[in-house]
Amino acid sequence: MMNKRHFIKSLGLGGLAMMGPSLVTKAAALKPAAPAARQHRVWVTPHHEDTASELQQRYAAFREAGIGVVYFEEDSELHFRAAKDAGMEAHRWFWTMNKVDGELLAQHPEWYSENRNGQSCATHPPYVDHYRFLCPNKTEVAAYLRQQAEQVLSKDYVDGIQLDFIRFVDVILPVNLWPKYNIDQSRELPEYDFCYCGHCREKYKAVYGADPLEMPHPDQSPSWRTFRYNSITNMVRIMAEVARQHNKPITAAVFPTPEIAKRIVRQDWVNWPLDAVCPMIYHSFYKESVTWIGDAVAEGVKALHGSCPLYAGLFLPAFKGDMGQLKEGIRLAVENGAAGVSIFGKVTPEVLAVLREMA
Ligand SMILES: [Zn+2]
């Protein structure tokens, strides 16, 4: 499998994280002397060559800076336990609908989603080779993801699960990426519009009496849009059921605002049963300034109506090493109602110093 972090960077679409208020209490209880009142989060890809003593130091510094939860992209008992020993929670960052898995592709190509031209993600992945999204309406897919969540959450060193890629393929990419793919997505193009598999169309038709493929403008059908929002929301509910059975929190990395998330990846995240949400407010992707981080947080917090805390996902490379700008981003996030931030990128001593200072 391609290195995930490299893939995220190459595509420009990362994942962010979040967590629940019960966790904050628990983490604080573990280490009452922690200086920071806020419990930030960070995404980490665990490297297997790291040693226990290195991790002890690194994670102690994270905790000191007010980080309460680490989202680990892969399983690594060493990393998970080191983070927990430092007084943080260790959650699994889980790729949900996008399954870059050669075995699964070979065994079940029929589980993958299809675009409006009838091409499957199994054989015609959009944008990049490692964009392989499953169909959210197939019962076999739901059973498979449930079983995977069960496996992750059964481990005693895993404190929670964070859903990433819990969405459709981007029907519209963030505008910063259009030149990269030499594409003008001023409208929804059929090759990026999913899922038009026979199962999804039948399921929609049974309720609404029409086949989306026979509509002259399926992109303009409100009910077909809602059907797809609900398809992803149902998958979140299934994953949340598993998390609740294990009494562990479930969170999700989502697109930056409720409006953008629905429009470009069919995520209706304000209606998901989560313990916390981490919108990826990656301002550079949308050609926005740091000021927009505050706007995006305000929109999300308002739309959530207090149903769960929001942690603003910040994309460190977008700050280009300017710690003053990073401080401004954190300040705007918190002032507009974020419970904290979730950091994507290399967590340097300078970044940790900013977090400590802002605490
Ligand atoms: Zn489908």
Question: Layout of helices and strands, plus pairs?
Answer:
Elements: H1 4-11, H2 21-30, E1 40-44, H3 52-64, E2 67-72, H4 77-85, E3 89-95, H5 102-107, H6 139-153, E4 160-164, H7 178-181, H8 198-208, H9 222-245, E5 250-254, H10 258-265, E6 276-279, H11 291-304, E7 311-315, H12 323-335, E8 340-344, H13 349-358
Parallel strand pairs: 1-2, 1-8, 2-3, 3-4, 4-5, 5-6, 7-8
Helix pairs in contact: 3-4, 6-9, 11-12, 12-13
The structure holds zinc ion.
Zinc ion binds at residues 113, 135, 137, 195, 197, 199-200.
Provide an overview of this structure.
- The structure is a single chain.
- This protein is α/β, with parallel strands linked by helices and 359 residues long.
- It has one domain (4-38, 54-64, 73-279, 305-314): TIM Barrel (Alpha-Beta Barrel), CATH 3.20.20.
- The protein has 13 helices and eight strands.
- It has helices at 4-11, 21-30, 52-64, 77-85, 102-107, 139-153, 178-181, 198-208, 222-245, 258-265, 291-304, 323-335, 349-358; strands at 40-44, 67-72, 89-95, 160-164, 250-254, 276-279, 311-315, 340-344.
- The chain has an eight-stranded parallel sheet with strand order 6-5-4-3-2-1-8-7.
- Strand 5, helix 10 and strand 6 form a beta-alpha-beta unit.
- Helix 3 crosses helix 4 (77-85) and helix 6 (139-153) runs parallel beside helix 9 (222-245).
- The chain is globular and about 60 Å long.
- The two termini are 39 Å apart.
- Mean pLDDT is 91; it is low at 1-36.
- Bound molecules: zinc ion.
- Residues 113, 135, 137, 195, 197, 199-200 line the site of zinc ion.
- Residues 1-27 form the signal peptide.
- Keywords: Signal.
- It comes from Chitinophaga alhagiae.
- This is Tat pathway signal protein.
